[in-house]
DNA sequence: CATCCAAATGTTAGCGCTGTCATTTGTCAA
DNA sequence: TTGACAAATGACAGCGCTAACATTTGGATG
């Protein structure tokens, strides 16, 4: 039956037979070339090319008890924020013998736990997980994991292993301060999804307005729904139906901000003069909207890249010099908050 | 050394030992319950739960010569179009014992070929690939693949196996017709990336304007760069620098269209009266822009869903009743092309 | 009660690779 | 030349599981 199952499949033994060496020598020639004499190595490489041998990752995984797969857990596939992170991860992993397998937790802690169990049962080379709000069980799983683990998207006090992110709280605080400093007083907060990171942005906002004596609960609108541009329109409509006394809006992400802008245009509300507007993430379109929208730039691709690099370093046995990285953020002040000159950037030190 | 390598790992044999049956019976109880007597099955399930046994997919793959992984090849991770497709795939696969592994071809036919080889060496349960423009070698690999294959994103004459998509040519043709029917004469085309699908959209546009005797090469602007909102702004600026004689613009995707809208707003060009505007894909924001932008709705999530369903059916041994599916498209006529009533939809039959 | 047959369970032999140890070969100093 | 030792290569077992075949069990049947 062999001919049937592995039709055409070339194995290590096949290569060894042709090259007149044992299978294990071929294995070594490919994995640890320095252990095989140069002459033999060359002959083996020739035979490999001739026969078109391709290593079987499955067999390798079973025999060596580890895979070349880096598991990535993100809460959403469609959210462009995570798409950027993924791109960063890919940019690093693509040049390596490793591959990426990712799971979609859909913002559910339980789903995350389930996926974590599945991923761990596959002996990943490394694990990249989003956020710092895992369930207790998940944290335990991660702590016991016999592979490097990187938590991304935010920073926090107790990393399971390594960490790359920034403080959403600080970022939101600074953005709110920017509005306050710009002379706005009645500053609203629009929040969608309200996952842990959004919550912390809300905290930053709250702190800033409270410190300035500007806190007003009626200016906060949040929803568990996912953020969309349309939701931004709706939230503005809702707010204006309640009160006309609004001077600025801090949106917990750029989709909402764009929706607010469109709705303002429709209602002939001048941005930034009637209402100031600030988003979060600094998606590409923010800079070219009309007017350009102030936003908090976050380094999403770099986050992915750094996380992947950390995993690869550790897998290679090297020590990671900086296992907890705070990537900070950058307030991109633009016309929508009366900051006309695009050049006026304040990278948080 | 066993204690070291498989520390804490519970195997089928362990379960069998406790339940007083052979390993293979446990295996069957889990995979083909109907082959095991109800009494025994229950005892086995109890022991499985008690011991916390988790099947090892790697060992299973090696023994059975197949994995539970569905490989997905897409050209971009960040393009929201593919993010939607992925979401569709996930929605189906999540409820099954299968998992998804995806590869990013970055619009490169060679990279696609390379990834295909890697994926195939892992004995995938199925393969979903984007587009119909594979290299000859890739087509050969796919044809020989011993698993179901679905080509997605577009339809074409010679499916390798199964296919879910729509005609980009027809979609673009209809959108252009819509502009012509709306009374626009000088109709420009803005195209970014210019991958095969974009090329076919350009063909549809060209055909439509030629048929109406409105073809003018100087109204076509294309670039190999990836599409962004900013690029839309630039393209409009470029075009207007050359000629003021433009009545409408068909953008090969919504990012560009949004950029054009912003640039029009800045230049005080009235949409739709000075310039008509039509996008492609109908991203969520199109409907709430100011004014709402006409676009060609494509069924991206459904495409992913259908493709995944097809794979699962075939893996289950069922026959797929309709192996080539044309999902069509829907012209969402909105204010940006003088079509005020949102209700005026024309689903292409 | 022997016979037959399907259903239920077990035995055996790998899947392709690598870890571990054993053996061979080559090199150099004494 | 000899021994000592490192470098190079090989033999073997086994990772955890399942396909294929073998055997047992439990009824139904005449």
Count of separate structural domains of chain A:
3
Helix-strand topology string of chain A: HHHHHEHEHEHEEHEHEHEHEEHEEE
Strand order, largest beta sheet of chain A: 7-6-8-9-10-12-13
Percent range for β-strand residues of chain A = 15-25%
Computed over alpha carbons, the radius of gyration of chain A is 26 Å
- Helical element count of chain A? 13
Indicate the percent of residues in helices of chain A.
40-55%
Q: Count of DSSP E strands of chain A?
A: 13
> Would you tell me the overall average pLDDT of chain A?
92
CATH topology of the largest domain in chain A: Rossmann fold
- What would you call the structural class of chain A? alpha/beta
Largest pleated sheet of chain A: 7 strands, mixed
Q: Please write the CATH class name of the largest domain in chain A.
A: Alpha Beta
- CATH H-level superfamily title of the largest domain in chain A: Response regulator
The largest interface is: A-B, 48 and 47 residues
Coarse morphology of chain A? elongated
State the assembly state of the protein chains: homodimer
Q: Which ranges of chain A are low-confidence, i.e. pLDDT below 50, for 5 or more consecutive residues?
A: 1-6, 341-349
CATH architecture of the largest domain in chain A: 3-Layer(aba) Sandwich
Q: Give the terminus-to-terminus CA distance of chain A.
A: 66 Å
Protein name (chains A, B): Transcriptional regulator
Domain HTH lacI-type (chains A, B): 10-64
GO molecular function (chains A, B): DNA-binding transcription factor activity; transcription cis-regulatory region binding
InterPro entries (chains A, B): HTH_LacI, LacI/GalR-like_sensor, Lambda_DNA-bd_dom_sf, Peripla_BP_I
């Amino acid at each position: 039956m062999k001919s049937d199952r592995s039709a055409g499949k070339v194995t290590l033994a096949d290569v060894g037979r042709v090259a007149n060496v044992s299978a294990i020598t071929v294995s070594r020639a490919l994995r640890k070339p320095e252990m095989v004499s140069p002459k033999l190595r060359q002959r083996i490489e020739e035979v490999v090319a001739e026969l078109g041998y391709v290593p079987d990752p499955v067999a390798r995984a079973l025999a060596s008890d580890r895979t070349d797969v880096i598991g990535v857990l993100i809460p959403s596939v469609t959210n462009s924020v995570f798409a950027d992170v993924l791109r960063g991860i890919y940019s690093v992993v693509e040049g390596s013998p490793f591959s990426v397998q990712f799971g979609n937790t859909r913002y559910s802690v339980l789903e995350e736990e389930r996926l974590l169990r599945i991923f761990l049962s596959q002996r990943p080379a490394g694990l990249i997980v989003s956020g710092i709000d895992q369930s207790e069980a998940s944290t335990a799983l991660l702590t016991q994991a016999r592979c490097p683990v990187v938590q991304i998207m935010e920073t926090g006090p107790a990393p399971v292993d390594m960490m790359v992110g920034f403080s959403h709280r600080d970022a939101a605080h600074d953005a709110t301060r920017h509005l306050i400093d710009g002379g706005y007083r009645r500053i609203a907060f629009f929040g969608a999804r309200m996952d842990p990171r959004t919550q912390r942005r809300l905290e930053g906002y709250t702190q800033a307005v409270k410190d300035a004596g500007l806190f007003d609960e009626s200016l906060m609108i949040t929803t568990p729904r996912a953020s969309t541009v349309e939701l931004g329109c709706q939230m503005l409509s809702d707010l204006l139906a309640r009160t006309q006394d609004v001077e600025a809006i801090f949106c917990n992400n750029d989709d909402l901000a764009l929706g607010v802008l469109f709705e303002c245009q429709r209602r002939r509300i001048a941005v930034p003069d009637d209402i100031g507007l600030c988003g979060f993430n600094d998606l590409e379109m923010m800079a070219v909207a009309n007017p350009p929208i102030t936003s908090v730039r976050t380094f999403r691709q770099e986050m992915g890249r750094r996380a992947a690099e950390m995993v690869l370093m550790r897998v290679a046995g090297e020590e990671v010099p900086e296992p907890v990285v705070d990537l900070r953020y950058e307030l991109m002040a633009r016309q929508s908050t009366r900051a006309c000159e695009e050049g006026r950037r304040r990278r948080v030190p």
